[in-house]
Specification:
322 residues, mainly alpha
Amino acid sequence: MLSSDSRLARLIAAAKSHRKALRLAGSGIGLLLLIGACLLILRERETLHAALDALRAPNAGLFALLIGAIIGNFLLSGLMFSVLIRPFGRVGLIEMQAVVAAASLINFLPLRPGLFGRIAYHSVVNKIPVRDATRVMIEGMVMTITAALLMAVMVGLSRWTGTPTWTLAVIPPFLLAALSAVDPARRRPLLALLLRYVDLALWAVRYLAAFALLGRDLGLDAAFALATVSVLATMVPFFSNGLGLREWAVGLVAPLITSYQLELALTAEIINRAVEVLLVLVLGLTALGWLTWRRSAWPHSPPESRDEGPGRRKEVSRTADD
């Protein structure tokens, strides 16, 4: 007869096996969805010609805007996690940027191991307990959902009241910045939410640029709405960075809020995804190389950042104890 510990171990092993199977299935479904989106675009000759024309004679300014917005997403994400993890240990700003970029690349693998890789890295390299590193990851997800809800509310109010979207969209960041300035006790989550909100606004810029590359104007309210949908689709478990799912989410929502058809929205999203993947490859591989070199150069104790001297260690210790 099996002991309770043995039964528990078997249940945990079974749960891990099922979770792994779900992630593999999700990655496979996402790849099929992406292939389906590409096939649909190939059937729509007008949309396909518009995309090919955009690639043959690209607007350098729009491509620069799209690339800049994606790089901005990486930077703001890294800054947000730097803010969130600060009470629990020493992680340099450049180091966190590298960790985020490397994890973004690894997350394209079928089992999306980037999240767990980040937790393991912080535990092994930065000596941050797994519990605290996991808490930071969860807080990051909460910030993303909250920022998306804030943006959705601003878009809804804009459509309901007729107020220009940009007028309402700037209210949350100013309010968050003001609150973080006058409320030191809540500065950490408020500043993290502010960074994620601005990050989400850059996603809207990406959609403005992607549609403009196809010769289509996208309203600011629609860009914010698509950014919200896109970010939430990326967070869905078992899909590798929302691969396939994000394309169809944008493709299906766009006709509901704009005059553009499914095929055009899919094309814009695939352009957005293609540029993103190229940047993830460049930045992610560079980050992995830098982190590996840094770890091999200082296997026992990596050098402190300029803002992370002994005083910083004491501050971390006091904050963790609190």
